Amino acid sequence: MASNGLKIAIVGGGLAGLAAAMKIAEAGHEVDLISVVPVKRSHSVCAQGGINGAVNTKGEGDSPAKHLDDTVYGGDFLANQPPVKRMCDMAPQIIYLFDRMGVPFSRTQEGLLDFRRFGGTLHHRTAFAGASTGQQLLYALDEQVRRWEVQGKVNKYEGWEMLSLVMDDHQVCRGLVAMNLQTLELKTFAVDAVIMATGGPGLIFGKSTNSMTCTGSAVSACYQQGARYANGEFIQVHPTSIPGEDKLRLMSESARGEGGRVWVPKNTGDARSPKDIPEDERWYFLEEKYPAYGNLVPRDIATREIFQVCLEGHGVGGENQVYLDLTHIPAEVLTERLGAILEIYEMFVGDDPRYVPMRIFPGVHYSMGGLWVDFEQRTNIPGLFAAGECDYSIHGANRLGANSLVSCVYGGFTAAPSAIEYAKNVERGSTETNGVHDAELKRQQDINDQIVRNEGSENQYKLHEEMGKVMTDNVTVVRYNDRLKATDDKLLELQDRFKHISINDSNLWATQAVPHARQFWNMLQLARVITLGALNRNESRGAHYKPDFPERDDENFMRSTIAEYSAEAPVLSYEPVDVSIVEPRKRDYSSKAKAH
Amino acid sequence: MTIAAHPEKKRLTAPPRTIRFKIQRREKEGAEAHWETFEIPYRRNLNVISGLMEIRKNPVTIEGKATTPPVWDMSCLEQVCGICTMVIDGRVRQSCSALVDDLLLASGGDTVTLAPMSKFPNVRDLKVDRSKMFDHLKQVNAWIELDGTYDLGPGPHIPNETAQDRYALSRCMTCGCCLEACPQYGGDNYIGPQAIAQARLFNMHPTGKITTDERLNGLLGDDGIANCGDAQNCVKVCPMSVPLTKAIYETNRDVTVNALFGWLKK
Predict the structure, then answer these.
(1) Closest to A203 (Cα-Cα) out of A398, A468, A459
(2) What kind and span of H or E run contains A322?
(3) Higher pLDDT among residues B147 and A245, named by residue
(4) Of A116, A125, A174, A299, which is the active-site residue?
(5) Is 90 exceeded by the pLDDT of residue A11?
């Protein structure tokens, strides 16, 4: 550690991590940036539709206060409101900053930023760069951070995976241990503070819209070392994904933002090609039920409606699929505004959505829950901060479309000064912490050695598939307590069987078997947090829906679930939600006027 | 809108019962390469990655020899991160968007051949190290020189047409297809299309324009733009349809003008 300057480690090089890195470097401090992939390939590239900010350029009277209201209402009043307010206030500045960094946002005829509509709002609030906005925002930060890298302020460790925190005897975070994914070499990073920005844990569900790097493994390691994990049970299932063999590919909400309509044939057995089914024989079930918001109801609602329609046998061809139809919009308009995502569909399905309605179904997409943080992005562990999807702070029980990109950047921009402030004041106590780095390194090496030594009949990839299936079947759109209980039993069984895996790879150079084994164990721990959080929340709120408890229960459950690790099972407790700005009200998107 | 003009996709009508993956293996950088062939049951809608995932679960060759699981890179699986690029049946592309049905339809056989990209260090099997592509981006200052990230209001007015032209360049995901296909690239005597296009991306921006010369300077030397041989392979293999040859042409023009008249500015 440099004796004069501050050094902060950031784990994860997506939007949140790069946003924090840029701010810390700009403040004159040093960053060690640890990422499993070259940061430009982080999962943020997959965000498609856009970034929300109440810039109000459309004469609609939009404001950060309305953005706040939409966000906490969309989140079913489970988010602490003060940080949401700060995010919504900062959002227009964030968009302008990206504009200055050269993001090729779509423009109006005057040359101003253009905005589109997204779910859960009646305003045009979403700035966008074609339909690959996440990619474009990530690239802008990647470029700025590369600039700082050239100036020696940012040290990138790409192809390194964090395994654990280094904690001193007073439970203060003094750095971390990471593994080089090529050599399997372990290294400790002794730093003044650590910021987690590792994204979501979608791979726990096997197939999801997430990238293959989204294991939640590093966050789970923090949890197992004492970090509190909040609202784990709130998993967003995106209404429109493209089912695939290897993953569920996202079909952005912007398809509906640009006018896409969801429908199924009225006649369940209708075998005609969709374009031969006349208008009056189509059932636009979202528009019928939600006249004001139509196809742009929040995701949790759209997902349940689609799920239900298919469950009742109305899906296209009797299968788990509905049409998402853009064919009424001129092809050239679609190409400009949605080109990137329509290409994805055509590439993987073979039909051109400009001429043939898409077939889609809900898929696991986002974790509202994550590491518990206070309003300054501090976790409960001194020296450990979190930002982006891996923290729980902004989205409550359901995230609105195009709020993820803005929350990542807000989180990074808040965590950075917060970590700097902490680092300035922390006692370094190097003699006291030297030993803990070596001890933690050895502990991690021992775990790796054990995995390599194991000779068993279990195959870790098959175990992962089993976990994904049971989690997808029981812990997504509709949840029942008996099945949640059975899921936890299954997870315990998988934990047991994990001890009998053989890594099946005699060549340890760049092997994926050892990293996957580490990730899988960590995923199992988080899977239990998600499952038991759901089991113990006997109400329905946002993305968490139990038919046996169909109503929101503010009296008992307007509380954040807090999970703390113990070897036996996560210990759950509940914390009140700060609703000091917008008074909670019943969520209802079905009436013609907005329920204010 | 003419629905009739929309061509139907050709589909594999008589698929084989099993498919084979012939994979180039290498234990580590510098080791000898060899080939191994695996067989898996045919399923509809497989992409190359799903095939590799299936093989990884039980890595046994068609000769019945137990071997190590093939190593490859993958992340987004939506052809937007660029990481899973490899050479598939002789053509460089992303393995996530390489659909087995289409490959078999094109080859008429039952075997898909996978090899790592050849222009980059081969870490193991199908995995390569493309870090020099990011070094190329440093060489051309592929960024906007901001005064700072504090709140300074919106950026400059930009016509939507310019924004769309820049967007086309900005979709480059640094996958390396253009470099793999380029006959000139390799051996440090040419920076290659991707970095030139990124220089162009920032030179087109009203703020980026201010530091155009610095970007062009990065392209002046022997390892710069001069050795483009105009083979135009890059633009044919680019999965994001980045207008690479146009960017090279425009940047070359700027470099020449700068070299001829740049001294006048001093």
Answers:
(1) A468
(2) strand A322-325
(3) B147
(4) A299
(5) yes
State the pTM of this model: 0.96
Q: What count of residues does chain A have?
A: 596
Query: CA nearest A20: which of A125, A153, A126, A215?
Result: A153
A551 touches chain B (CB under 8 A): no
Give, in degrees to the nearest 5, the angle at Cα A461 between A460 and A462. Answer: 90
Is the CB of B81 less than 8 angstroms away from the CB of A149?
Answer: no
Query: Residues 6 or more apart from B263 whose CB is under 8 A from it?
Result: none
List of residues 6+ apart from B143 with CB closer than 8 A: A101, A102, A143, A144, A146, A147, B202
Cβ-contact A176, A188 below 8 angstroms: yes
Higher-pLDDT residue of A383 and A505 is: A383
A299 is catalytic: yes
A513: contact with B, CB 8 A cutoff: yes
**Contact in structure between B140 and B198 (CB atoms under 8 Å):** yes
For residue B265, pLDDT beyond 70: no
Instruction: For residues B232 and A252, give the distance between their C-alpha atoms in angstroms, rounded to a whole number.
Output: 33
Instruction: Using the predicted structure, report yes or no on whether residue B10 has a pLDDT greater than 60.
Output: yes
Question: Would you call B144 and A340 a contact, using CB atoms and an 8 Å cutoff?
Answer: no
Which pLDDT belongs to residue A126?
96
* pLDDT, mean over chain A: 95
Q: How far is Cα of residue B122 from the mean position of the Cα atoms in its chain?
A: 16
B94/chain A closest Cα distance in angstroms: 12
Distance between CA atoms of B113 and B106, rounded to whole angstroms?
A: 13
Residue ranges of E strands in A222-315: 229-230, 235-242, 249-250, 261-265, 282-283
Q: Determine contact, residues B94/B84, Cβ cutoff 8 Å.
A: yes
Give B-chain residues touching A106 at CB under 8 angstroms: 160, 163-164, 167
Helix axes A133-150, A404-425, angle to 10 degrees: 30
Q: What kind and span of H or E run contains A174? A: strand A173-180
pLDDT of B2: 41
Q: Note whether A132 contacts B: Cβ–Cβ < 8 A.
A: yes
